[in-house]
Amino acid sequence: MKRPEEVKLEFTRDWVRKAEGDFKAAELLLQSGEGFQFQTAFHAQQAAEKYLKAYLVWHQIEFPKTHDIGKLTTLAADVDVDLPAAVGEAEALTPFGVDLRYPGDYADVTPEDARNALALAKRVRDKIRNRLPDGALE
User: pLDDT band at 5, cuts 50/70/90?
Assistant: First the structure.
């Protein structure tokens, strides 16, 4: 039987793996130069969301089923009051994971939007990875 700390570490690691997959997908899509701006922004949003959820799992903070980066950041502030200031701008990613992923009356995602989305996801990635134990980052 696994100890609770081992289970927590494994569950956190699972979230980190999913987040890292989305982050790498966003990087590859942006580098392809083939007009995958929306897809880049979508995967950037997904990476930031999953990294925040990994952090919440590590700290055993329950979270609702949501794509709202601001809500997740607010929950994380319960254990790290500095985190919202470090990653708060990433809230701008939320529409890429919610509204913009479906057809509608929205502006196209520009190459600059895609680059900015990836930069925001990288900021979240870096800040969260620095706050998690090494064992969660394998």
Answer: confident
Place of tokens 């502006």: 107
The whole domain housing 127 covers: 4-136
Sign of the Cα torsion 68, 73, 74, 75 reads: positive
Distances from the Cα of 28 to the Cαs of 47, 77, 93, 116, in angstroms?
A: 13, 31, 18, 15
DSSP assignment of the chain: ---HHHHHHHHHHHHHHHHHHHHHHHHHHHHHTSS-HHHHHHHHHHHHHHHHHHHHHHTT----S---HHHHHHHHTTT-TTHHHHHGGGGGGHHHHTGGGS-SS-PPPPHHHHHHHHHHHHHHHHHHHTTS-GGG--
User: How many C-beta atoms lie closer than 10 Å to residue 100's C-beta?
Assistant: 19
Lowest mean pLDDT among 4-8, 92-96, 97-101, 129-133: 97-101
Total tally of structural domains belonging to the chain: 1
CATH number for position 86: 1.20.120.330
